[in-house]
Specification:
Elements (H helix, E strand, L loop, with lengths): L1 H14 L1 H4 L3 H5 L4 H4 L4 H17 L1 H7 L9 H12 L2 H9 L5 H25 L12 H19 L3 H9 L10 H27 L10 H22 L1 H36 L6
Helix pairs in contact: 1-8, 5-8, 7-9, 9-14, 10-13, 12-13, 12-14
Length: 282
Amino acid sequence: MLVALCVPLIAINVAGAPFYTASLAVRARHPWRAWLQPSGYIGQSAGIAAFLIFVFLWLYPLRKKWKALRWTGSIGRWLDVHVTTALLLPLLLAIHAAWRADGLIGLGLASMYVVIASGIVGRYLYTRIPRTRNGIELTRDEVGAQRRELIQELAAATGLTPDALETTLHGGERARDDGNPLRVLAQLVAADLFRWRRTRQLRARWAALTPGHRVLNERQLREAVRLADRELALEQQSRMLDATHRVFRYWHVAHRPFALTALVAVVIHVAVVIAVGATWFR
């Protein structure tokens, strides 16, 4: 869905490059000016779509705050829609601004790009906190119970003992939390890369016909690797849980002010544009 929406927006940005890269004097006489200028048919339509999306994005904080809205879907699902929809904004804003941003709207545009970038980071941090499918955070005891269950399932699938699996899955040095938010983010990314490499190694090892290993068919092998990946993820999330929560709090401090700045700038921009009649639908 996202790709299908992005393709025409990317096409407009690419096709409009001769107009976007031209000087202001050339733009004033350009044959595409009526379509691609900020108040043009395409330019302003992109701005209207971006404004509607931006307003829609503010529904997510309301869903988190008001439990009465739980009938609209889980918080996790709302977050997925929130982030996915926000990814359309850079393309729409580039078209609307005609690749130029001056004055107040320049501040709003810069703030919105910061909000989008920080939103991607926030989504990543959110996924590093173990939760149920409904978005409810798991306790450490619940995480431990899930891990033990996964180890037992993995032992049954591979024929290895739980102790052997623990050693195989979690061998190697583990990062320490030193309180630095940037270093914690780097450790989270490193843990993801470690998990990717480890699951590839396990797939190759379990696929080999070695003594003492149960011979797995392709379906069994895929299931064993899936279980291993899930167990590794839970162990990493549990180990880095306190650090992830701390960085998440820092993230909120940075995300909200920029979101409010963008909201104020955009509302003022829209009000001024409508007041002066700088629209193609006037």
